[in-house]
Amino acid sequence: MNIDLSQIFTYMYAEIALIAVIILAFLYDLIAGKRGRRFFHPLMCVLMAVFVAATIVPYNSGEGEIFGGMFVYTPIFNIVKGILAAGTLIVFLQADSWLRREDTEFKRGEFYVLTLSTLLGMYFMISAGHFLMFFIGMELASVPMACLVAFDKYKNNSAEAGAKYILSALFASGLMLFGISFFYGTCGTLYFDDMVSKIDGSALQIMAMVFFFSGLGFKISLVPFHLWTADTYQGAPTSVTSYLSVISKGAASFALMVVLMKVFAPMVKDWQLMLWIVIVLSITVANLFAIRQKNLKRFLAFSSISQAGYIMLAVISGSAIGMTSLIFYVLVYLAANLAAFGVIGTVEQNSGGKVGMDDYNGLYKTNPKLAVIMMLALFSLAGIPPFAGFFSKFFIFAAAFEQGFHVLVFIALINTVISLYYYLLVVKAMFINKNDSPIAAFKSDCSTRIGLAICLCGVLALGIVSSVYDCINMFSFGM
């Protein structure tokens, strides 16, 4: 196998640039003294901003593959990578106040390196053309993520969340490896392009597909694979929770759709039936549990499970329009969810760790700007017009409806109304409910305000600026 270095730099420039950022972060953490650490945060934000600007718009409009087809490049893959990098930048902006704490200041470099390492793993998973590359990418994303979940290891909740995440990840990896091994036994190859012609829908291959999907189901937190999702979200540091709920979920969902469309196309009826059941369970069960939550991080955990169900509506369509809808939905969901977690994080840091629903009673009177941002984010998550969430849900529903899933879309619409109720519970708490000891007024740090402003622009503008959807659509049809 001849390796052309020019092709590596052409097709892997996002991965190479990200590795360079990781190395710079690692070296700076080693050599920077106590005074130099105060420049660590702005340095990482500038590096990530440059990285996002360089990768989110693909300069190479062609397609290609390297390493014998194990790594595949298409422009739409690069757009997704750019979106995930933009979300990571926002997480960095919002994590500054937490990282400036006395017990985490000296671990700032670890946070950046671990977070970017998970992002690198997701990049390899997205561009995989071989199940070995796919699995390596998934593990590269999972292992550092477990460290991030248990980042506050001296706190019982964080240590417990880390242990539960590790157990879930091990179980998911085992299931996926079972499925991949069965496919290798029946197809004799693990290359995506070669497997398509050898997929015949036999009982063993259907079982292999179920195992593979179950493994990714844990990563995406779909019902019935959600298990300890709420416990993990509650125990992990809020910045890590926001990263886990959006970046990890978005990457895994996109990778799943690519594999289903490229590899399992001959078994389309089988995986569509499986997805149909999982979508109904995810949206319905998550909504019912979300209504009962009193902790906002657990509340958003079940909200994210429900949102994952909506994302699967795009996957089940199995079309280019569905691919476009999925990417646009992830982009809008990223803006809204990171805004909500950004508010929770800054309130938590400035109120002594308050994250309960009752703690937010009367928040509008003491911190009106944060209350308004939270309200707009929740309205977008609920799909209320004219916010971006409404348009993203509309495109998702349209993609599924076009492929004949009329009953499924109807069930999703009913659940959208149910979700509106529990999102409004939070709005009611902030704007109407009274509190004898409300959260005191405070001013969030500049970095957090910038992150929230970016998210707010996304929530308000993405539904109006049609060129974003059109750009994604153009590259999706060229995949």
TrEMBL record:
The keyword Translocase applies. It is a multi-pass membrane protein. The keyword Cell wall biogenesis/degradation does not apply. Pfam families: Proton_antipo_M. It catalyses: a quinone + NADH + 5 H(+)(in) = a quinol + NAD(+) + 4 H(+)(out). It comes from the Bacteria. Its EC number is 7.1.1.-. NDH-1 shuttles electrons from NADH, via FMN and iron-sulfur (Fe-S) centers, to quinones in the respiratory chain. The immediate electron acceptor for the enzyme in this species is believed to be a menaquinone. Couples the redox reaction to proton translocation (for every two electrons transferred, four hydrogen ions are translocated across the cytoplasmic membrane), and thus conserves the redox energy in a proton gradient. NDH-1 is composed of 14 different subunits. Subunits NuoA, H, J, K, L, M, N constitute the membrane sector of the complex. This is NADH-quinone oxidoreductase subunit N. The lineage of its organism: Bacteria, Pseudomonadati, Bacteroidota, Bacteroidia, Bacteroidales. The gene is nuoN.
